[in-house]
Design a protein that fits this description.
This protein has helices at 3-26, 32-37, 44-71, 76-103, 110-117, 124-156, 160-209, 214-220, 225-228, 242-249, 259-267, 271-302, 316-324, 332-370, 376-397, 405-429, 435-454, 462-466, 470-488, 494-505, 513-516; strands at residues 456-457, 460-461. It is mainly alpha-helical. Strands 1-2 form a two-stranded antiparallel sheet.
Length: 518
């Protein structure tokens, strides 16, 4: 068998395994709570790895290594920001959010939680939250599908559109069949595969190129090695400004508002499991980000003299795997498995995004606003139809082969982080937050990002003119809007304050008593 045939076999085995997982959970998914939260039955390991795998996406193994490869170690500030955001999310949001979603009438989705938390009888929060999720998750899902298309195109040389179609079909199939538990179990498997690949491949490549040759090869590749390793400048020696570094660190702010990540917190079996998940999740994140940056550094030396340029820099990990495991046909299958690690990163995020978007349409808009008497089976059917519809729209957005994975992720991350991050934090930690503040926060966050990133003034967007990441601006404007609107309008009712106090003290929130009194 040829090297390509072994790689195809590895991909086929992997994809078949994911489909089998989806099929196995199809019969166990009987209602919308099963489809969207798995009956709140996630173990610590599954919750942690599925949360982190759904977080990182193809960005971890394509976007970040490509940025370091092209621009040098100065790009690590994004990784530092993401690690800080991950840790803070697990420490300050996970436990309290799980507790509050149970207290808030057993909320299944983020929009439903916000409606119940602020006693919104007019469904304003439900509507604007769902619309924001639809807009930004379509872009986010498109980034994952585009990454999958690029992976297949780079490995097999097939037409990008054909590759995009194959990847979309597989992700859609197991998400459609198994819902939340299928997504979480596949994400658990994918998280392990991603971690093994991101650690193993750069270490082998580093040993092959030789420690003494790294600096020489990087210099020979056309960059100043001293500048390449300077975290305060790019590979050409241009110093990063304060705004550049703040923008990269600002990615940390996005975590508090990512529905596909925080829904894992809501679904953990009990509060004792959260402690375990916290350690596993933070550890996985730290190792993965560290070695993803290492891929970009080693790749610059190992792939020389075949330098990558333009959008091809995002393929550095793919090229490394193909070169490392191309010396002998017998080990090509192993290389194929590691390539599946990249596919795992892509699929583990895209499936979660499809599920969250479907929940916004079927549970939050249809079941809660349009047809409150809809049967569980009807809501479940609509959920699956929505998964298909969203996948098709995201597929159409991703059809452009020149679309940047990093660019699409950046836009979606900013929109979701600015819309939901501030209000999630304030809903958990500031009892004076009210409905008016919540509406103002979500609206201003979303609008700020759209204006900052897409509207041009004098031929440039505000993001291009200032160099400041829209998430940083949108997050703090949203935060200010919440404070101002909450203070100038009517204070929360006694019932809302009682619920806040119950959650704070661990009383009457559906939590086991031992965990609540930790």
């Amino acid at each position: 068998m040829s090297t390509t045939a072994w790689i195809i076999m590895a991909f086929a085995c992997y994809l078949l395994g994911m489909l089998l997982v989806g099929f196995s959970f199809m019969k166990k998914t009987k209602n919308s709570e099963d489809f969207f939260l798995g009956g709140r039955g996630l173990s610590g390991w599954v919750a942690a790895l599925s949360a982190q795998a759904s977080d990182m996406s193809g960005w971890l193994l394509m976007g970040l290594p490509g940025a370091v490869y092209a621009l040098g170690t100065g790009q690590i500030w994004i990784a530092v920001g993401l690690f800080i955001g991950t840790a803070l999310n697990w420490i300050f949001v996970a436990k309290r959010l799980r507790r509050y979603t149970i207290r808030a009438n057993n909320s299944l989705t983020l929009p439903k939680y916000l409606e119940n938390r602020f006693h919104d009888k007019h469904r304003i929060l439900l509507l604007i939250s769902s619309v924001a999720i639809l807009i930004f998750f379509l872009v986010y899902t498109a980034s994952g599908l585009a990454a999958g298309g690029k992976l297949f195109n780079s490995v097999f040389g097939f037409d990008y559109k054909i590759c995009l179609t194959i990847g979309t079909a597989v992700i859609l199939s197991y998400t459609f069949m198994g819902g939340f538990m299928a997504v979480c179990v596949t994400d658990f498997i994918q998280g392990l595969l991603m971690l093994i690949g991101v650690i193993t491949v750069p270490i082998i490549a580093f040993m092959l190129v030789g420690a003494g040759n790294v600096m020489d090869n990087i210099t020979a590749s056309g960059v100043d090695s001293k500048a390449f390793f300077d975290i305060l400048s790019d590979a050409d020696g241009n110093s990063y400004s304060f705004v550049d570094i703040v923008s990269q660190l600002g990615w940390a702010l996005g975590y508090f508002g990512m529905p596909h990540i925080i829904v894992r917190f809501m679904a953990i079996k009990n509060e004792k499991e959260i402690k375990k998940s916290r350690v596993i999740g933070i550890g996985w994140c730290g190792l993965s980000l560290l070695f993803a940056c290492f891929i970009g550094i080693v790749g610059r030396a190992y792939l020389f003299p075949d330098n990558l340029s333009g959008s091809q820099t995002e393929n550095v990990f793919i090229e490394m795997i193909q070169k490392v495991f191309n010396t002998d046909i017998g080990i090509a299958f192993i290389g194929g498995i590691f390539l599946c690690g990249i596919l795992a990163a892509i699929m583990s995020t895209a499936d979660s995004q499809l599920l969250v978007t479907a929940s916004s349409v079927s549970e939050d808009i249809y079941h809660s606003i349009i047809n409150k008497k809809a049967s569980p089976k009807k809501v479940l059917l609509l959920s699956r139809i929505t998964v298909i519809t969203v996948a098709v729209i995201a597929y159409l957005i991703a059809l452009d082969p020149d679309s940047s994975v990093m660019g699409l992720v950046s836009d979606a991350w900013a929109g979701l982080g600015a819309s939901f991050g501030p209000i999630v934090l304030m809903s958990l930690y500031w009892k004076r937050t009210n409905l008016a503040g919540a509406v103002a926060g979500i609206s201003t966050g979303a609008v700020t990002v759209i204006v900052w990133d897409y509207l041009k003034f004098g031929g440039k967007t505000l993001g291009e003119s200032t160099g400041l990441y829209s998430l940083v601006v949108g997050f703090f404007i949203s935060l200010a809007a919440i404070f101002i609107a909450s203070l100038v309008t009517k204070a929360p009712s006694e019932e809302m304050l009682k619920e806040f106090s119950d959650v704070h003290n661990g009383i009457d929130c559906g939590c086991d008593e031992a965990a609540a009194n930790e």
